[in-house]
Specification:
By secondary structure, the chain is of the alpha+beta class. Helices cover about 40% and strands about 35% of the residues.
């Protein structure tokens, strides 16, 4: 009996029934890991946003509360100072009026005594007569004593001569009394400022700032790379331009200011981020590269004041240390992603314009637009070369002491 022959089609599909296992390439594993990391970052982002906004709201609330307490304390101190100054002013006025009365009384007594002495000297001054006057008086006295008929006319003449003397004396007394009028002394009035003196603003200041900034990536690609077969700089640049977009940064500043003459020196500790959003459609990868840094700036500024409003431009640089420096970028041949690391330490240039409003002598509200950029490349691994710059706005409070 002949064995049945197998159909050629069965022989063709016979190999498909056998199970075969193949190891995936390393690029596929990196792609999957990058997608998982991006998804985890995306899940953690809302929680971080809520934490930042909660901290900002807490600082704003504490600043307003502290400012209201300082303002109420200042108003109460002003009221107390006003009351004490009024009492001091009234007591000094009463003392000065009493002193004025006593001085005027003593001066009046002295003036009356002076008048009496002067009148006595005028009325009872000794009379000096010439020999001719003495002879005339003797002759008239002899005639009057010899003839009684001439005694009455002589007496009338003496009375007539005495009247002008009396009138002249009265005129002199009236003139003296009219001219020598006692002057009432006016006590000096010492006034005090009704408002309490403002507290002296110190040269030192500490403050907090929160804000957000827009990050822009300025990258370059190598024109050629012999190590990668089929490398095309044009295709690599187009893939990055389509898949990488700008992102934002949360900023937090703890700062210290020192006044040196007409200038201000500022330093502190600042938190910032660099990076970009990723959405590579050709390999289905999306996420965000975030390079987190802590920097110590050194800024020099010149303040200009317009009443309670201040304007201070600042320029300087900052030394930054990286907290998170891992990133993911597309490969030149578009078959996967590559993991890169940003610099652990870097320098940044800073320029900002601080607008301030004085709520209290010590408490100041600030709003600060700023520009920041990296000095040199932050990411440089031969294929990925990135430098960054950002524009942002910070707001917060400064306490001077």
């Amino acid at each position: 009996m002949n064995k049945p022959s197998k159909d050629p089609l069965d022989q063709l599909f016979e190999t498909l029934a056998e199970a075969r296992f193949e190891t995936p390439p390393a690029s596929f594993i990196q792609d999957v890991e990058a997608r998982l990391d991006a998804q985890q970052k995306k899940r953690r982002k809302p929680l971080a946003v809520w934490w930042v906004w909660s901290a900002f709201g807490a600082v704003l609330f504490l600043g307003i509360l502290y400012g209201s307490k300082l303002k109420s304390a200042e108003s109460s101190n002003t009221a107390k100072a006003t009351a004490s100054s009024m009492q001091a002013h009234l007591s000094k006025n009463s003392n000065s009026s009493a002193i004025s009365k006593s001085v005027s009384a003593s001066k009046s007594t002295a003036s009356i005594q002076t008048k009496q002495t002067f009148l006595n000297a005028k009325l009872f001054q000794p009379i000096s007569l010439t020999p001719t006057a003495i002879a005339a008086i003797s002759e008239s006295y002899a005639i009057s004593s010899a003839d009684p008929h001439f005694s009455a006319p002589l007496q009338r003449e003496n009375q007539q001569n005495s009247n002008p003397i009396t009138a002249d004396t009265n005129e002199r007394v009236a003139l003296i009394l009219s001219q020598d009028v006692p002057i009432q002394p006016v006590a000096p009035v010492i006034t005090q400022s009704m408002a309490s003196p403002s507290s002296k603003v110190g040269k030192h200041a500490i403050g907090l700032q929160f804000g957000v900034s827009a990050i822009f990536s300025s990258y370059a690609v190598p024109s050629e790379n012999p190590a990668i077969p089929g490398y095309s700089a044009k295709q690599f640049r187009e893939a990055r331009e389509m898949g990488e977009r700008q992102t934002s940064s949360w900023d937090f500043n703890l700062r210290y200011q020192l006044g040196i003459g007409a200038w201000q020196l500022q330093t502190g500790i600042h938190y910032l981020e660099w990076g970009e959003q990723l959405q590579y459609d050709v390999i289905s990868v999306e996420g965000t590269n975030r390079y987190k840094y802590i920097q110590v700036p050194l800024l020099l500024g010149r303040p200009f004041h317009f009443g309670k409003i201040g304007l201070t431009p600042f320029l300087g640089a900052a030394y930054a240390h990286g907290l998170t420096t891992n990133g993911t970028y597309i490969q030149p041949l578009n078959n996967g992603v590559s993991l890169v690391s940003a610099k652990a330490n870097n320098w940044n240039a800073l320029a900002q314009l601080e607008l301030s409003y004085q709520i209290l002598p010590q408490l100041i509200f600030t709003s600060t637009p700023f520009y920041r950029q990296t000095l040199g490349l932050l990411v440089d691994n031969g294929l990925i070369m990135n430098r960054y710059h950002s524009f942002g706005l910070l707001s917060g409070f400064i306490y001077r002491f």
